[in-house]
Specification:
By secondary structure, this protein is an alpha/beta fold. The chain has two domains: 5-245, Rossmann fold; 254-450, Rossmann fold. 31% of the residues lie in helices and 23% in strands. The chain has 15 helices and 19 strands. It has a six-stranded mixed β-sheet with strand order 6-7-8-3-9-10, with helices on both faces. Strands 2-1-4-5 form a four-stranded antiparallel β-sheet, covered by helices on one side. Residues 427-435 and 445-451 have low confidence and may be disordered.
Length: 451
């Protein structure tokens, strides 16, 4: 392996208001290696990538790409030095076709004649071996979530980088797509490219990475040989406690459980028929690759899409599934997969976002009881370990993981019978829901079913 450092980050610190995102963190990546970066949400992973890619200006420290110093917070300069990044939420122009987005991503001297974009795009996508079959003329906005993630990787690779940053690249991918992505990452490594791989899927990390660096609360916890460490050891470094203590035991004894959601023969346009029962205090998982009807199933249960057939009972009451108002009133809460478009109002604060669906609980004679509202939100902020300088901090300035925790807090405040959590650990602009949030989801099933 070539041990030349293609990315060096020395003593990086960054503070956003009262929140210290990074404290004296050093990180490097060698040519011809895959270096994974792991940690809970709010641990500083996204901020560190932002500094490396020139989007975030560090308070202290410096960055070198290919041995040359990044002199200012400039994504353009980072690209010119040989760094490319595949973004979680995508950087494509949705109204533009695939061929144009790929064309814009390529360096100017590597672009084909404009009239040959279509043939060039087909050839480039085939060369990357991502199992990505796209119509070059199709608008990027029509791509599935999985296709968008793989297309982000393709746009990064077209720059022929020295170092490639992959930020949660597999959150929406099925097993075959993950295998294709790993095959491409390993091919990059074999060509001498340094790959920084950010993920919360520890088995994948241990499978593909050469080294693993752990961050916790914005501080460096250590770098480990991926072949000489294990998942329990990494979890202990990530959460700061033994692996066995990371998750609480089931909240309710089996003989005390009651049926809170009974689904019988439910069928929609893209799924079914489906039948199952959820008990109080139970977490039930729905598995399947992207595009197999999971979102449509959740939309039906939440009253957002009318089913074709079937029956659903919640706490002994039959639901008509014709409105979200009925579902929420019956105790069924949906935690959407796209928090930015479907759950949160970015310009409003943590308190408002958390209580917007529960104002009746904090109102008396049409007046809002501010003290009770703030007290309830404060308890959830502590329980979910939401990192925010204040309850009035706009959620758009929080990390992706903390934004997701605010969305979870909103569901908890309704005290529902059932929580439908669609991809609760999917990352958007930053990390997915943290292990601490998963522990709280498990603990919150004391008197409710949780999905």
């Amino acid at each position: 392996m070539d041990h030349e450092l293609v990315l060096e980050m020395e003593a990086i610190s960054r503070q956003f208001g009262a929140v210290r995102a990074l404290t004296n963190v050093s990180f490097d990546c060698r040519a011809g290696e895959i270096h994974a970066l792991v940690g809970e949400n709010g641990s500083g992973k996204s901020t560190l990538l932002g500094v490396a890619s020139g989007f975030v200006d560090p308070d202290t420290g410096n960055v070198r790409i290919g041995g040359k110093r990044l002199t200012r917070d400039s994504p353009g300069q980072a690209r010119s030095l040989g760094l490319a990044m595949a973004y979680q939420d995508g950087s494509s122009i949705n109204a533009e076709p695939v061929k144009n987005n790929l064309y814009y991503a390529a360096p100017p001297d590597e672009r084909p004649p404009y009239w040959r974009r279509k043939r060039w795009a087909r050839s480039v996508l085939a060369d990357f071996d991502l199992d990505l079959e796209l119509f070059p003329d199709a608008p990027a906005g029509y791509l599935t979530m999985a296709e968008r993630q793989l297309f982000e990787v393709a746009k990064a690779l077209v720059t022929d980088p020295k170092v490639l940053l992959l930020d949660e690249p597999t959150t929406a991918l099925g097993p075959d797509e993950v295998e294709a992505l790993h095959r491409t990452a390993l091919a990059c490594r074999d060509r001498g490219v340094g790959v920084v791989y950010v993920s919360h899927r520890l088995p994948e990390v241990l499978e593909v990475a050469d080294r693993v660096t752990v961050l916790r609360d914005g501080e460096y916890q250590g770098t480990f040989d991926a072949k000489a460490t294990s998942e329990p050891e990494l979890v202990e470094h990530i959460v700061g406690r033994p692996f066995d203590a990371a998750f609480p035991p089931p909240a309710i004894a089996p003989d005390e459980q009651k049926s809170v959601l009974v689904v019988d023969g439910l069928q929609g346009q893209a799924f079914g028929p489906v039948s199952f029962t959820i008990l109080s205090g139970e977490v039930v998982g729905i598995a399947g690759a992207e595009g197999n009807g999971q979102p449509q199933l959740f939309d039906c249960l939440a009253g957002r899409e009318a089913p074709r057939a079937g029956r659903v009972d919640c706490a002994g009451k039959e639901l008509t599934l014709i409105s979200t108002h009925e579902a929420v009133g019956a105790g069924v809460m949906l935690l959407p997969g796209n928090r930015k478009q479907e759950a949160l109002m970015g310009v409003l604060g943590v308190r408002v976002n958390a209580t917007i669906q529960s104002l009746r609980r904090f109102s008396r004679f049409a007046f809002l009881r501010r003290r009770a509202e703030r007290s309830a939100v404060t308890r959830l902020v502590e329980q979910l370990e939401i990192r925010t300088p204040s309850l009035d901090q706009p959620v758009e300035f929080l990390s992706g993981g903390n934004q997701q925790k605010v969305s979870v807090a909103r569901s908890f405040l309704r005290e529902p019978s059932v929580i439908l959590a669609y991809e609760p650990t999917r990352a958007s602009m930053s990390a997915p829901v943290s292990i601490s949030t998963r522990r709280c989801v498990r603990g919150a099933t004391l008197a409710r079913g949780c999905w």
